[in-house]
Design goal:
The chain is built from 11 helices and 10 strands. The protein has helices at about 35-50, 70-75, 80-85, 110-120, 150-155, 155-165, 170-175, 190-205, 205-220, 225-240, 245-255, and strands spanning about 10-15, 20-25, 55-60, 65, 100-105, 110, 120-125, 130, 170, 180-185. Helix 9 (about 205-220) packs antiparallel against helix 10 (about 225-240). The structure holds octanoyl-coenzyme A. This is ClpP/crotonase.
Length: about 260
Amino acid sequence: FSTARYNNVLVSRPNPGVALITLHRPKALNALSAAHFKDISDALVEADADDSVGAMVLTGSEKAFAAGADILEMKDKTFADAFTNNFLANWEVITKLRKPIIAAVSGYALGGGCELALMCDIILASPTAKFSQPEISIGIIPGGGGSQRLTRIVGKSRAMELCLTGRMFSAQEAEQWGVVSRVVGEGEGVVVKEAVEMAGTIASKGRVAVIACKEAINASFEMPLSDGLRYERRLFHSLFATNDQKEGMGAFAEKRKPNFTHS
Ligand code: CO8
């Protein structure tokens, strides 16, 4: 797992259980060209498959998490081309990953950048974060889930306002509406530091339970309540078959820290 393979992202291991993936296309404010996106998704897939990684952090620069899909690359695309090649369908790869991904957002998270953050499991924002779905201003609509994932979080009226006017919303608004889990303190690198700490905490838990927990919460967006509750209960029951359950509860009874083996 090393940066050498990638031109548009930096990868590092700030904590033994955490993979940090940094979007790195500074000349275009991390605009998501096809090559850039391939690097992001390949790096995340690689981290997800790495047994030593328990959680991932995805971040950009201080100025831009990502300023959207690459407009210059898209501008001459035709309907036939977009439709036939199912343009952007490959973005769904990220939503199929099993380990938690935390987005650490500073600066612009616009269009596809906002949607990329919304595909992650937790979003932490720096006070400088600015979100928007500005596609309407360039003659299109969101194509990476902005009209769906954002609407489920902020509700119809706000989603309509945001997607129909393209106006930016602040980190504070995002926190108030539940788009981000919280806004961290001011300062360069603070949001990444906090996201890495949070990812480290998640990575220290039993992996089987972490993956089951992410799967259960995500199921709540797809299922009616009674099915979701049954799904949760089945996963809950299944965790009693794990060594980590015996270790976690045994450690509590013996008043010591658990030593999870992710089994
Ligand atoms: N695409 C291509 N290049 C970009 C993009 C972009 N989205 N954003 C910025 N850049 C480039 C600029 O062209 C410029 O390049 P150069 O220096 O060669 O001229 C460089 O980045 C710096 O940008 P600016 O000079 O414009 O910097 P400012 O600080 O003046 O402005 C802004 C920053 C406000 C972010 C401005 O760049 C801007 O408005 N960018 C476009 C934002 C936008 O409309 N994004 C939405 C794109 S559409 C989209 O994302 C469709 C979603 C598809 C779903 C994707 C799947 C998840």
